[in-house]
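Batch manifest, entry 17 of 40.
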Amino acid sequence: MIDNFIPELWAANLLLQARKNLVYGQPGVINRNYQGTIGQKGDTLHIVGIGSVTISDYTKGTDMAAPQQLTDADTELRISQQKSFSVAIEDLDKAQAAGNFEAAARDQAGYDLADTRDQFIASLYTDASAANLNGSDASAIVPDAVQDGGSNNIFNVIEDCATLLSDSKVPKIGRFMVVPPWVSAMITKDLKLAGAAAGAIAGGAILNGFVTRIAGFDVLESQNVPNTGGAKYKILFGTSQAITFADQIVKVEALRDPDQFRDIVRGLDVYGAKVAQPDYLGVMTMSKT
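Output type: structure tokens
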């Protein structure tokens, strides 16, 4: 294997596999506007934002006011995470495998990298705007099924989240919400009882984990929704303008194990994320009971 090993191919395929399996880390939930050049943990990308533009009345024949001096805000996106993997591929396993054993190992590594990245991005819920919080640890929302007729039915509480974003002047286009499997199941069951099908995205790509569309949100399912002992689930919602993410597989190498008949493949993955626009991000705290 080592004679035919191409590290660039492994790195490209790992990155592709990782991104393909991301829910929190996919376009539509985050943006990669400041990917830049990443080499190692500690690298910093600078995000330059422009402040608000003043809109004034115009009167014909009257001189306009002096032009506004735009101000910028420099926010740092620090590459704070570095993760490694090291897998051993036995000669006997390769000889006896019916399929492409190397590709299977590479795909699994890519999937596990994606899972780790998603957990990191999900943890950024703490940086959401205080104006966009629905429920709290002290008063978590316990959703009702629609047929129960309660004010906390799942569709109503999602609509409440949409209202919070609208009050914060967040665009309606491109809104997402990431829910745990038990919430996804509740939504799907209620849709079936109502005789409705899960909504599709007309003319667009389906996002990873897509369940349906409710109140303008693309509702996505993930097992990585932060929670405390199966309670107080932190359901993230907003638009992709809120979180900026940057990643890179910086090193993949293969070496022969000197003590056993096997090859070792190991790699280094670095990444970071930043809530650049907190007003575009919200959190709903929800519990089962």
